[in-house]
Amino acid sequence: MTDAASGIPAESDDVERAADGHAAVESAEIASGGHHLDHEAPAPPRGKSGRKTLLTVAKVVLLLAMVGFAGYALVANWDKVSDALRQLEPWVAVVSVPPVVLAMACAMQVWRSLLSDLGSPIPALAAARIFFISQLGKYVPGSVWSIATQMELGREYKVPRRVGFAVGVLALVLTAAVGLPLAAVTLPFAAPDVLGRYWWVMLTAPVLLAVLHPAVLGPLLNFGFRLIRQPALPKLPSVRGMVRAAGWQALVSVCFGLHAWILLIGLGAPAGRALLAAIGGYALGYAIGLLAIPVPAGAVVREAALTAAFAAVVTVPQAAVVAVLSRVALTVVDLGLAFTFLAVARRKAKPTTH
């Protein structure tokens, strides 16, 4: 979604790091291009100038770290990409990129619809800026950086931190809760052996779907906030809101599947089975990748699942080629969208001269 970009709630220590360590994570606010400029901000008290300087430095450091990790993901895979492109027409790889952009746009709508359902609606352009910039955080080890970035950037639009945290976790859980059933109805017709290999992951689907029912989800979220001594959510999730978000999430998997399908067809895969393997493989791969909390963006784990699914319609080396190209395409799109909206934020932050 897209790839975000980017499925299991963080452990309690990760929750505390996101809630209590927000001062360090406020570095992400540099990406917002500053606060609204409708009114001139008053000069900060002298006693706070040192803290403000430290926060500014932290903003730069975290943003550079996120960009650096994402850039490293590109460089580390470059040799594999060069080899892969020798087996595939370059134009096929280029044509496969637009569905990735659509997938990330749908993923942004998942996040935005969840925000609205929890009582914090924000404009589409603002949601895109916050979401796409925050996706660079998924390349940093750990699962809290994207969520923490969203929490801090959302403050500009008066989104309470606890709402931002709840939405970030819900988006991850929803990815797995929607992806696993989608894999269950597509892979049996294209790659049945893959479901047998990952049967233990499929067992979590009923649990995740039950947890996402508002009758369970609302009290569960508020109980978690009580444990960390935070106020309850201002608005509980609704059935309509969760269904809307789930619909957007299903579109994320379909768009990513179309991306992989184009690559598979370019390698000679049969169109019908390849489409089912691509959609089901991506849905399963993302769900499994989100379980790998310490691994940046589900690296290795996700590619293993994708390769297994794609190998049902092409050779194993060709399946690995598609998995690698998909990873690189998502990284390029993440970087491109993040820098685009960083530029938009900078332009809006510049004072106008008459």
From TrEMBL:
The chain crosses the membrane at residues 54-78, 90-111, 163-187, 199-225, 246-268, 274-293, 305-322, 328-345. It comes from the Bacteria. It holds the Pfam family LPG_synthase_TM. It is a multi-pass membrane protein. One of its GO terms (cellular component) is plasma membrane. It is found in: Cell membrane. The keyword GTP-binding does not apply. The keyword Transmembrane applies. Keywords: Cell membrane, Membrane, Transmembrane, Transmembrane helix. Residues 1-21 are annotated as: Disordered. This is Lysylphosphatidylglycerol synthase TM region. It comes from Cryptosporangium aurantiacum.
